[in-house]
């Protein structure tokens, strides 16, 4: 089943057309006008009508909005509708520095120190005669990110025969999908669960103009940018045309040439989708610099390190539908690892907040999946010193929470 979304804040990659750049102030005004017009056009849509007109791909089990942005379940799609269709989404800050990283609350969604050096993947043999092409272009696209950031992708060819989102022997899979040409490819963010960590490639990615700048290798460079936490550069107001939501944080200055910026979203790139100097320093500031790469500190400053944890268990607890229960609150060391893992039954939701109470309306991590098995796992940012954990009963249930943290 495939559905098309009527509310489009961004055009998909599949139709290259360069737009003229605009200045940030003009872009912000145009962005506001376009977003308001889109919301007004869809204002009468119920959630059910919006859901039924949104692209859904059975092979991935996900909805897709804004070109290649996946929404992994109906709960999150409803939230997107409430915050971006029925209501006016909060705007990003003008002038915020920008290599754009996925951020929820104040928390960057990037790979942990333990995981960033073991980003294992497979490439499905379902690509048939194109398998070797995908393997080669994946390795070339990966090389561009590994050359600048302290991350390691590892190709596990032995898993290619069982390369799907149910294979826990790799961190993610690369496989074909038939999206009907609605997107060229789509990926995931580091905070997604394993079942949602796939790079999927539509057949249209193999039908590009051989004389054009847009290539499968460039598309994969863009999608791999998502897998390390990069958001579309055009989410920010300076882009002037395309906008998705406010779950992002700037790392470098706004970059209209960025590999994460679609040229038709007032980008200035040429569809080759290569990493710019700002992309390179931006991702290196998040993960540390790769050997031989020097971060340009006039662009951004690198983040700090991470020490050793203790484990505490809470529960089991019963929770009613609509109830909110505080689980724990404790000081934490900036730069340390924090992990809260919930198990149980029913549909409770895990909420974690830094430097404040965890609330339904205020959180830094909320997996928001169907069921009770949820995890928040992140490095405590600099300047943060307190964490609170709470659970909300989306539906009634029972839960236990195990917390791993470093306290001063």
UniProtKB/TrEMBL annotation:
Q: Name one GO cellular component term.
A: extracellular matrix
Q: Which UniProt keywords apply?
A: Hydrolase, Metal-binding, Protease, Signal, Zinc
Domain named Peptidase metallopeptidase is located at 107-264
Which residues are the signal sequence here? 1-19
Q: Which InterPro entries match?
A: MetalloPept_cat_dom_sf, Pept_M10_metallopeptidase, Peptidase_Metallo
> What's any GO biological process attached to this entry?
proteolysis
Database matches in SUPFAM superfamilies: Metalloproteases ('zincins'), catalytic domain
Q: Which domain of life is it from?
A: Bacteria
Question: Does the keyword field hold Transmembrane?
Answer: no
Q: Name one Pfam family in it.
A: Peptidase_M10
Asked if Signal is a keyword of the record, the answer is: yes
Offer an example of a GO molecular function term for this protein: metalloendopeptidase activity
Return the protein name. Peptidase metallopeptidase domain-containing protein
């Amino acid at each position: 089943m495939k559905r098309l979304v009527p509310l489009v804040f961004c055009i998909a990659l599949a139709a290259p057309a360069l737009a003229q750049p605009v200045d940030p102030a003009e872009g912000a005004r145009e962005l506001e006008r376009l977003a308001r017009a889109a919301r007004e056009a869809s204002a009468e849509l119920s959630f059910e009508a919006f859901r039924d007109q949104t692209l859904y791909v059975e092979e991935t089990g996900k909805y897709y909005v804004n070109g290649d942005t996946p929404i992994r379940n109906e709960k999150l799609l409803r939230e997107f509708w409430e915050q971006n269709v029925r209501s006016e989404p909060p705007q990003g800050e003008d002038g915020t520095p920008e290599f754009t990283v996925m951020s929820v609350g104040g928390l960057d969604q990037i790979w942990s120190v333990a995981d960033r050096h073991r980003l294992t993947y497979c490439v499905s043999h379902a690509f048939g005669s194109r398998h070797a092409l995908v393997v080669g272009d994946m390795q070339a696209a990966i090389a561009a990110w590994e050359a600048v950031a302290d991350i390691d992708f590892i190709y596990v060819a032995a898993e290619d025969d069982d390369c799907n989102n149910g294979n826990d022997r790799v961190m993610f899979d690369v496989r074909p999908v038939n999206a009907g040409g609605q997107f060229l490819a789509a990926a995931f963010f580091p905070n997604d669960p394993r079942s949602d960590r796939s790079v999927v490639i539509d057949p249209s990615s193999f039908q590009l103009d051989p004389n054009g700048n847009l290539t499968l290798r460039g598309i994969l460079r863009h999608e791999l940018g998502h897998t390390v936490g990069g958001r579309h550069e055009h989410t920010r107001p300076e882009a002037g045309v395309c906008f998705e939501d406010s779950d992002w944080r700037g790392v470098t200055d706004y970059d209209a040439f960025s590999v994460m910026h679609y040229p038709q979203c007032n980008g200035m790139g040429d569809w080759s989708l290569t990493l710019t100097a700002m992309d390179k320093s931006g991702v290196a500031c998040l993960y540390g610099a790769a050997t031989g790469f020097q971060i340009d500190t006039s662009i951004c400053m690198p983040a700090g390190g991470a020490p050793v944890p203790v484990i505490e268990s809470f529960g089991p607890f019963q929770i009613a539908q609509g109830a909110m229960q505080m689980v724990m609150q404790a000081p934490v060391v900036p730069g340390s690892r924090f992990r809260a893992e919930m198990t149980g039954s029913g549909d409770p939701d895990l909420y974690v907040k830094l430097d404040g109470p965890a609330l339904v309306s205020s959180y830094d991590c909320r997996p928001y999946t169907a069921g009770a098995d949820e995890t928040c796992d992140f490095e405590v940012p600099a300047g943060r010193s307190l964490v609170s954990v709470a659970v909300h009963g989306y539906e009634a249930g029972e839960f236990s929470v195990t917390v791993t943290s470093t306290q001063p």
